[in-house]
User: Fold this.
Amino acid sequence: MTQKSSTRGELNSIPKLLARNAVEFGSAPAYREKEYGIWQSWSWSEAAEEIQSMALGFLALGMEKGDFVAIIGRNRPAHYWAMVAAQKVGAIPVPLYQDAVADEMAYVLDHCGARFVVCGDQEQVDKVIEVQDRVSCIEHLMYHDNRGMRKYDHSRMNALADVQAEGRAAHHRFEEELSTREAAQGWDDTCVMLYTSGTTGRPKGVVLSNRNIVVTAQNSSDFDNLRSDEEILAYLPMAWVGDFIFSLGQAYWNGFCVNCPESPETMMTDLKEIAPSYYFAPPRIFETQLTQVMIRMEDAGQFKQKMFKYFMDHARNVGPKILDGESVSGLDRLKYKLGELCTYGPLKNSMGFSKVRVGYTAGEAIGPELFDFYRSLGINLKQLYGQTEAGVFIAQQPDGEVRSDTVGVPSPGVEIKIADNGEIFYRSPGAFVEYYKNPESTADTKDAEGWVATGDAGFFEENSGHLRIIDRAKDVGQMASGSLFAPKYVENKLKFYPNILEAVVFGNGRDMCTAFINIDLTAVGNWAERNNIAYASYQELAGHPEVYSTIQSHVEEVNKSVAEDPMLSGCQIHRFLILHKELDADDGEMTRTRKVRRKIVEEKFSDLLVGLYDGSKTIYTETEVTYEDGRKGAISATLELRDAAVKQVSPKMAAE
Assistant:
């Protein structure tokens, strides 16, 4: 393994890291992309040449220092190259969510004033063209995939390949200018602008400097001893800060390879083929993978089911201890090795986790049962706590100190303090510069001393010094009885069950908690198929009596678990319903990163919430929905509202 240089003063931008990698890791793989079922590879020297020609082409188009360049599309080497090429000329990349509808794109494009837009394919080009009458700043469109593009007006549009060809042809004219711009970049120049998910309102443009990204990439890499021979799979949205720090910041700092899957549909197959050593996924991905495992086991023979249960019960008892290097008896180790041969090994291989050395989950709290399941298999899954404004990293879990109920210790270079009201504040080299064109929000979030308000509530444990997150500060409240209300804690427990895709818990200021639940159509649909139960829609399956009874059993199991926590025992769910539609980003009920917009859900389904609290047994409702082609419609349903058994908590326990 080649030792990478670490002279921080010289490596103060992504393009400068690229130049180093092209020399030190020239022939090593930098990018792979699967297309038409075949993996294609580019070395660091080849990637540097592709980026250089693209940057020269951008100069030929008239791209200026400080211009904003929107990047819209799936994870592809060419899109990452476009971001680095923009940085080389002194422009600022602004990746957008590829599944955003035209109106959402219009807001971001107009807000940042993007002069140039790089699109992945015809679908993204069409969305940009649709909003061009409202977004007057766009001067030039570029696209990577030329399928379907032949008859478009190309007076202000080019294929990226043609832009690169122009850059190669005109290199004598622009190389000196490009070198001057690249050399002039320093720590405080803008590296990227990323938009928040907009959970509570319009997305905000988070300005992150070279210092924010490069120093954070180095510190976080040192924390986990990341190396140049790591393999990662880049499949999360390019507009999300996690993908940027992993696939650009850390990848360029360490010189490891970024692998891009062929499509969302082939992602799990591609994950298995790559078998990454460094892996990140939000809880939803781990939930989906566990659901698929459980579905396969339900379809397996009786012997395989019994063997799976036997070894998984053993893994839950000793797996995390073995992973953390704790003392385990020889017999238990032998049994675990046998389980590795028969169950854990094949299971990890089927999920693509056979080589994971460091795994992380973040974005929202992960259910403890889900977290413990993966660690019991011997997968070094850890939690990190972060946000866009921090360049991701605020707190991380050191090896050997991993627990499901904390997010670890402050990341290297990060200071954390807890305000009197429980809100978490941090200060770090990764702390963002500002919200673009929004000085009021910047001042509200980041004070003159550099302390950033996270909006989350938590506390440090006295014995371990680990940070424990309770919930979003705005979501944490009190029940009418005065006991603590923290909905995310309960929601994550519910989502451990493969049948439950999403849950929204209510109860702040009320005398009891209630919940809206979305079933997982894949898991419940598989159950219906095995039991010869016919259904025509999500709505019909969600209302099936047996489905309701199954979900009720899950809710009541969660209540038993919640009752064991003295601080949160008041959050048991007394009544629930199964929503007649899945919560959807297109309907405004979730963000593009799949976070529930709690306030919008509460307002949109206010009639259902009233029914849960007034004791109604059924309720009729009508809801507006957005179809895939953008048309609006409405669906109606009569929903059942059910009571769930709660566990009585002793006065002594409640007082604790």
Observations:
- The chain has three domains: 14-280, 281-379, 477-655.
- Residues 1-8, 651-656 have pLDDT under 50 and may be disordered.
